[in-house]
C-alpha cells in the first residue's frame, strides 16, 4: 500500500514530503522537536496541517490548502493504526477483547473478532494472557498485546511512535524480534531514537531537522556515510561490517563504523 505525504504545519516549522512504498518500513530519525511525532500525528489524522496532501493505496486521506474547503478523513476512516510509547490498553477489557476491538469495530462478528484476536495473540507469543486484564501485565507483555491489537485491525499503514521507549532494557530485544517478524510485508513508519531499531526493522531512513528532511536513503547506506551531525553522532561506534543487524542485537561494537561526530562527512 503506497503512502504519499506532503504537509506543512507553520506553527511547528514543519514542511515535509515523502513516500512509503508497499511493504516498506521507513524509520524517522531526528533530535527532539525535529518533527517526527508531528508527521505521525498528521498521518494518523490527529493533527490537521495548514496545507498538504496525503494518500494511502490511492485513497486521499487529506487535501488541504489552495483556498478550497479541502478533504479531511477522520482517524477511524483512514486505514491506519498507531502504536505509541505507552500501550494504552482498555483497562476494563480482557487482553483478548482489547485485541478484538479493532475487527469488532470494523463490523466483524463477536466470535470472528475473538478468533482474529487469538491468532494475533499467538503471533505475539502472549496467547496465555488472553483472559487477563491489562493491570496484570508487565510492561513488555502489555506492549506485545498492543502490537497484536494494532495488527488485528489489519491497517494499510502502521505508525510506530517510539514503541520501545517505555520498556525495560531487558524487554527490548524480544520486542524488536517480534516487530521484525510481524512487520514483514507491511507499510510502516517507525519513529525511533535507537539506530539498532532502524537497522533491524527499517529498509530506509529519513532524518529530520527543524521540520525539514535533511538526509534520506537506504538504512545501511545512510548509517555508513552519514551527512549530518545528528546522524554521525547517532551512528558513532556502530559496526556495519558484519551484515544486517539482528533484531536481538545487543550494544554495538565501538571499534568500527563511521567517523567521529566531530569529523567531516
Automatic annotation (TrEMBL):
Transmembrane segments: none annotated. Residues 3-235 form the ABC transporter domain. It holds the Pfam family ABC_tran. It comes from the Bacteria. SUPFAM superfamilies: P-loop containing nucleoside triphosphate hydrolases. SMART domains: AAA (SM00382). Residues 242-265 have a biased composition (Low complexity). Keywords: ATP-binding, Nucleotide-binding. InterPro entries: AAA+_ATPase (IPR003593), ABC_transporter-like_ATP-bd (IPR003439), ABC_transporter-like_CS (IPR017871), Molybdenum_import_ModC (IPR050334), P-loop_NTPase (IPR027417). One of its GO terms (molecular function) is ATP hydrolysis activity. Residues 241-265 are annotated as: Disordered. The keyword Zinc does not apply. This is ATP-binding cassette domain-containing protein. It comes from Cryobacterium fucosi.
